[in-house]
Amino acid sequence: MTKFLGIGTGTLALTLLLSGQASAQVMTAELTGGEETPAALNTGMFGSVELGVDQKNNEISVTLRVFNTPTPTTAGHIHIGSPGTPGPTVLNFPPALVGRTGDFAMTFRLGDTPGVFVARPAVGINTIEDAIQAIVGGNAYVNVHTTQNPGGEIRGQLSVVKK
Predict the structure, then answer these.
(1) What are the two backbone dihedrals, phi and then psi, of residue 138, each rounded to the nearest 5 degrees?
(2) Residue 149 main-chain phi, psi, to 5 deg
(3) CATH number of 2-160
(4) What sections of 19-160 are H helices per DSSP?
(5) Taking 90 as the threshold, does the pLDDT of residue 19 lie above it?
């Protein structure tokens, strides 16, 4: 019951965040340890993420749901990279993610602010616009880290939701 409520609440929150964004594109990913690289992890932790990408305002609305977190979370990010390939972080999730255990859901916005957007010129990401283009193009994934697995506990490749 708690999981269902968390998922429904997160979806409602994302819908409300996107209501004023006519040009927003919705993307999702299922987060599992099996997607981690370079080696898949056998973890009971899992989750999902929904993104509303507003290219006009260079902003991303995020609803993150995580379950069975075994040890405190240490970070969460959007990375540039194709499936099965590690890549650099381009957008950091807010500090409120740190220290979470068990089941939780968060909704927040990401944009071109210090400490959130990280330029990666070596892979062609110089601006928030470049990062958003890579994300919408399917060349990005979400990763959540824990104290047990500081390199990442769960990961999922972002894909566009077909309308």
Answers:
(1) 85, 15
(2) -130, 80
(3) 2.60.40
(4) 128-136
(5) no
Q: What is the pLDDT of residue 163?
A: 74
Structure tokens at 148: 């047990």
Pick the closest to residue 78 from 150, 161, 162, 156 (CA basis). 156
- Token match 């749901």: residue? 65
Check pLDDT > 90 for residue 2. Answer: no
| Higher-pLDDT residue of 11, 159 | 159
Rounded distance, CA 140 to CA 150, Å? 19
Summarize pLDDT for 34-81 with one digit per residue, the tens.
Answer: 999 988 999 999 999 999 999 999 999 999 999 999 999 999 999 999
Hey, what are 62's tokens?
A: 């995020």
**Strand runs labelled E in the chain:** 25-32, 46-54, 59-69, 73-80, 89-92, 102-110, 140-146, 154-157, 159-160
